[in-house]
Design brief:
alpha+beta, six-stranded antiparallel β-sheet, four-stranded antiparallel β-sheet, 11 helices, globular
């Protein structure tokens, strides 16, 4: 039922809906934020039509075969999609399993394909993780180890992003412990500081755009590996309570916030060019325009105008034009 909701949204009489979205924007932004240059170049090559798409690159790099040998209907590409999407925010086996379920990857079949390709050192680490964490999961040992092996391979390929998670946690923790001092990471693209506002304490994370995200009443638990706590709304219970965060989660906040900072000016630019926005979903705008007016290419060009602070970020737009909204 939920998957049918988009199709219920239709344009008014004499109008079309046109809905461009930033292609792979979170993966691109994360690579740009931390300078994961090989991945940025892979995106540039794909955008120029000279390289394979990044899901093929992901699975090819993980298991050492030519990504150009993978077609869009090849099941290995779907595995590559899961590999590329799950790991960006410090995801572990649980995140991989959830993403695999979302994209229809059979874990038993994947394990049979993946397990023989894992090196001895990867399997050794996966066995250690099984002993420490995996026994409490519902996954068979071999499946758990295959999933953990994929996680390790992703992190080996993304050393700068992995280092970025640690840098974010350290900078945030230092800002909490030393109010008034600004701490930076990601080459100065991300800044942290503590703010006292009317007697209430906030940790602020400044994004590359200059916009700030705020975390209320933060603290660092030195007895729990310097875990960062703050107060907010629990995403599952919807209750106001003390919650916690970590490097990968801060990265997710920063990347998704940064992607929002690209979409909003694109919506304003589109409106000024007579493409009025009627909604947005994550990294996608929805515009209702007169039949016969404009084009996806023209609107995509407006979306691809990068702000000065985002120099070097490869960006591309995909989308559709139709009477009825769809994915």
């Amino acid at each position: 039922m939920a998957s049918c909701i988009r199709g219920m949204l239709i344009a008014g009489e004499g109008s079309d809906l046109i809905f461009p979205d930033f292609a792979g924007i979170e993966s691109r932004y994360n690579a740009w934020l931390w300078g994961e240059e090989w991945k940025l170049q892979a995106f540039r090559d794909y955008d120029a039509g000279t390289g394979p798409d990044l899901y093929c690159v992901a699975v090819g790099r993980a298991f050492n075969f030519d990504p150009r040998s993978i077609t869009k209907k090849d099941p290995r590409r779907q595995l590559g999609k899961v590999i590329d999407l799950f790991g960006g925010y410090e995801g572990g086996v649980g995140a991989f399993v959830k993403m695999a379920d979302t994209y229809g990857v059979d874990l038993e079949e994947m394990t049979e394909q993946v397990y023989p390709l894992l090196s001895a050192d990867v399997l050794e680490q996966a066995l250690w993780m099984w002993g420490k964490f995996g026994r409490r999961s519902e996954l068979p040992q071999k499946v758990y180890m295959a999933c953990d092996g994929v996680k390790q391979l992703w992190r080996r390929d993304h050393k700068r992003i992995q280092a970025g998670w640690k840098a974010l946690k350290e900078a945030a923790g230092l800002a909490i412990k030393n109010p008034g001092t600004v701490y930076s990471c990601a080459g100065g693209k991300i800044l942290f500081r503590m703010l006292d506002y009317k007697g209430r304490q906030w940790l602020q994370m400044q994004l590359p755009s200059g916009r700030k995200l705020s975390y209320f009443n933060p603290s660092v638990d030195e007895d729990d590996n310097d875990a960062i706590h703050y107060w907010g709304v629990d995403t599952e219970t919807r209750q106001w309570c003390e919650t916690s965060t970590y490097g990968g989660k801060l990265d997710e906040n920063g990347v998704q916030g940064g992607c929002r900072d690209l979409l909003v000016p694109a919506l304003f630019a589109a409106e000024a060019a007579d493409y009025p926005p009627v909604g947005s979903v994550h990294d996608e705008g929805i515009h209702e325009i007169r039949k016969g007016f404009g084009s996806l290419d023209e609107l995509g060009g407006l979306y691809c105008r990068l702000p000065a602070y985002a120099k070097g970020l490869p960006i591309a737009v995909e989308g559709h034009r139709a009477h009825r909204y769809r994915k």
